[in-house]
Amino acid sequence: MITGINHITLSVSDLEKSLKFYTEIIGCQAIAQWQRGVYLLAGDLWLCLSLDANTRTNPIDEYTHIAFSIPKDKFPEYSDRLKILGIKQWKQNTSEGDSIYILDPDYHKLELHVGDLHSRIAATKKAPYEGMKFFIESVNNQQSTVNSQQSTINSQQSTVNSQQSTVNHQTNTKIAIQGVNVLTPDGWLNDATVLIEDGQFTNIDQAITPDGYQLINAQNFQMLPGIIDLHGDAFERMICPRPGVNFPLPIAIADNDRNLLASGITTFYCSITDSYEPGLRSRDSARALIDFILGTGKQVLNCNHRIHIRHEEANIAEHQELCDWIVSGQVHLLSINDHLPPPGNHRRLNRYLNSVKQRSSMSIEEIEELITQVTAQRHEGDGQIQELVDLAHTYNIPLASHDDDSPEKVKLSQQRRVAIAEFPATVDLAAQSREYGAAVLMGAPNLVRGGSHLGLMSVAEAVKHNVIDCLCSDYHYPSLFYAPFKLQELGLMSFEQAWSLVSSRPAEAAGISDRKGKIAPGLDADFLLISPHNSLPSAITAIASVYVAGKEVARYQTH
After folding, report:
1. VOC domain spans which residues (predicted)?
2. Residue 137: pLDDT band by 50, 70, 90 thresholds?
3. pLDDT for residue 142
4. I need a surface site. Which of 89, 324, 409, 481 has the fewest CB within 10 A?
């Protein structure tokens, strides 16, 4: 005898994107997650999202759909919110009860409906469908049904727990790193044993290693938290090493992944410029990068990749698509940029012309014509920028400013509630940014090279005035690893303080400190094993191994 629907499984192409849609937009409750799936509860219904390379890429031309119940008083709120967010609809309601018909990120047809079978039968008895006949007088025995459903729910929950236990057993990896000197949030812990299970740290300084752990001897090595890079665009040179010369994205980004790991970077915010320029920094290029990194790239990339969209204010094309990326969880950091040279500023114009010339095959005349066209429409995007800012806050996506070079721009960033101030021009502007609560982010190449390539505030100067919170690779990945050694060598910071600028403090600024940035129980086991007693310029050769989520993804020395 069938007692009800046990569960529904939906194939999805992007697990994190679909999880965010079903929890934050639809309102389901997350119960359990593993590498290739998620269990959710939609009211009393067990819903499974399963990662599937063969997921549909367009809506199927049929009426099959799943309808979720929502309270009548919540329908206007849901309806208005879905329309504001631009969630695509596949049908207009013509039936009894309020309904809105929407598509999920993988084109599954959904309905949010007010009412139940009892109300539908009551309505159709008054106005029957063509040829309709009824097999029972009424939908009754409701209490009996509730009791039966509750029994089913309990059974389902038991099944969820049982299956999750099976999943954990199948993917369980227990590692004990022994004899290592660990940089913890409280300082160095020497000759420690670090326990890792299912990709997370579970214990530090465990005196006796429990049974069932894979033992790794790390005596004479140091363990450092993996580097978190909030702003890096050196991958552009992997795609386009010479003007007009492009390599296929899968090759370029896979090669870039190896460069990241070789520099000790375990979490990378791929800084994709969403510009009005054609080619490397175009919307088409941004779309292709996102599709690869969050799609098939997950099978080949070992560094934890996240998406940082650097949106140019003057790019007003295809605004809704960018909004959709934010709503669907494909953007993890949003910065507002304005690299368009102001009229009459010849220094900025020449610098911009040279910059575009290096990444495209456009002539100077073509670039100047592009600038003229974009300048004429730049203020049409003001309203779009405000909508992007609002969406970022709605979906808890960190917002960053870029190159604030005046008190007016800092004030605007404050009004936008910016979380990260990228590359403020002066000590005073950096201090003002920190005063309203932004974390100041600067480029590690600035420190390693001895100053800003644009003649602005140096990292050394920022450290001396205590107006810096984080470092990023900017355009050169190895500099991010070298920087803490450089700060120690210059006597500006202890190594332990300096390493926090590339690990725990970027995690805090990006809102991921509950998962990354430190070697501590409950956090992702992203870390480096390095040889001790290193100094510039050979410090980067000290990296022995790189681990992401408890898995060794790169090895450069035997241990």
Report:
1. 4-115
2. low
3. 44
4. 89
Task: Tell me, rounded to whole angstroms, the distance of Cα 301 from its chain centroid.
Answer: 15
One-letter amino acid of 539: A
Is the pLDDT score of 165 beyond 80?
no
What residue type is 334 in one-letter code? L
Residue 479: closest CA among 465, 493, 498, 492:
498
- Cα distances (angstroms) measured from residue 416 to each of 393, 429, 432: 9, 16, 14
Q: Is the dihedral of CA 201, 205, 206, 208 positive or negative?
A: positive
Taking only the tens place, the pLDDT of each residue in 480-535 is: 999 999 999 999 999 999 999 999 999 999 999 999 999 999 999 999 999 998 77
Distance CA(358)–CA(321), nearest Å, equals: 28
Entry pTM: 0.69
Residues 175, 195: contact at Cβ < 8 Å?
A: yes
Q: Which carries the bigger pLDDT value, residue 78 or residue 391?
A: 391
111 is catalytic: yes
The one-letter amino acid code at 90 reads W
Residue 91 near residue 59, CB atoms below 8 Å: no
Q: Which of 229, 246, 228 is nearest to 237 (CA)?
A: 246
Candidate list 24, 111, 489, 496, residue with the active-site label:
111
**Based on the number of CB atoms within 10 Å of its own CB, is 186 exposed (0-12), middle (13-18) or buried (19 or more)?**
exposed
Report whether 22 contacts 33 (CB < 8 A): no
Q: What is the pLDDT of residue 96?
A: 74
| 91 residue type, one letter | K
Beta-carbon contacts of residue 61 (< 8 Å; ≥ 6 apart): none
Q: How many angstroms separate the CA atoms of 468 and 500, rounded?
A: 12
Tell me the backbone φ, ψ of residue 149, rounded to 5 degrees.
Answer: -65, -40
Residue holding tokens 């450069």? 556
Decide if 330 contacts 20 (C-beta within 8 A): no
213: left (phi over 0), alpha (psi -120 to 50) or beta: beta
The residue among 504, 501, 509, 545 whose CA lies nearest residue 527 is 545
The helix/strand/coil state of 211 is coil
Tell me the average pLDDT across 125-135.
81
Number of helical (H) and strand (E) elements in the chain, helices listed first: 18, 24
Tokens, residue 461: 């100067």
